[in-house]
Amino acid sequence: MEYRYTAIILGKRDIGETDRFYTFFTQEGGKVTAKAIGVRKSNAKLCAHLETGNLTTLTVMKRRGMGRIVSAFCEKRYFSEEISLEVSQEIIYILSLLDRIVEENEKDEILFQLLFSFLEVSQEIIKRGEEEKVFLLVQGFLFQLLWQLGMAPHIQKCTSCNKKLSGNKIYMSAEYGGVLCYECGVSRQHTFLVTQDTIKLLRLFSSHSLVLLTKIKVSSRHISDVRNLLNIFFTRLAR
Asked: What's the whole-model pTM score?
């Protein structure tokens, strides 16, 4: 049976002497893995169309087990020489993370559009010479990814007593799934203090599109604080 996909290439793995497994996230069927035969030969035509990060239209033939990629055409390349190594690593991290945590063959058009939007906005701000904004965009994407997976931290009220947050001392707990007021957080294990600014930034992530997030001015320290926080939740998710 033949399947046609609009896909974003997440990653690849060499097998044998000339073949590869490719993983891609598709608009039509979620994450899919398929084999490309002979793609590492010097005269292979498919290879350039299947580079990591490409938006590609491809056809997969499938009978039993894993399908085989029989055609591919790159619609858009999101990596170029204009992108620094540091920013490239951030984008590759997003793609590899999706490859690790998303189950195969579960259609999710909203998640596909979120990833597509992330790549589009990243490319636009890099073209404008605003590469530093990618680091904020990555954190916004990660929070919205958690939200889409139903794993985002609760940030409006204390997850233990349901009271509104007050004061400067706020705790966060992956075990409790979000913020804790000072009274609840100080008496529990595996909690950590977060700032009001970090909570405000997370709330912006929850209410703003990725495009709007690029208009926000945030210090690198606050971006780092949010990164550390979200890493805790993704580490828990990957268990």
From this structure: 0.92
Domain carrying residue 201: 141-239
> Same structural domain for residues 108 and 210?
no
Give residue-wise pLDDT tens across range 25-55: 999 999 999 999 999 998 888 999 999 999 9
Residue 29 sits in the same domain as residue 125: yes
CA distance 49 to 12: 12
